[in-house]
Amino acid sequence: MSKAVIFSIITVFALAAQAESAKSLLSENGVAEATCIPLSSIESKCFVISGNNKFDISKVESANLGKIGVRKRADYSKIISFPSKWLKASDAELMVEITTKAWCEGKQHTLVEPVYIKGGVYLQR
């Protein structure tokens, strides 16, 4: 097999593995999608996509981790964030619940935080 073919096969498997680890949730009415993509074993990038708009809501992961206490990300062995459910909101608003699971010192912590988007702006608590 040529190096180009081997490289292509490896690239396809790497992309497939990354796609499998991304977690997405479509809203009930199908107008929005929330997704979290792992950047590493301890960090995710999260977005809400609605029409042509993409909102970076990645700060929700840090907000969830802050509920455990003040720690550096390096203190965690694994952190996974994902959209867990869409919450009721008006037609001009989007609200989705993001769950973060974090492992530290042999214990798993599960934390939940709502994400609220109104008027095209991500509002934090």
TrEMBL record:
May I ask which residue range the UniProt record assigns to the signal sequence?
A: 1-19
- Record's keyword terms, sorted: Signal
The protein, known as: Uncharacterized protein
Organism for this UniProt entry = Microbulbifer bruguierae
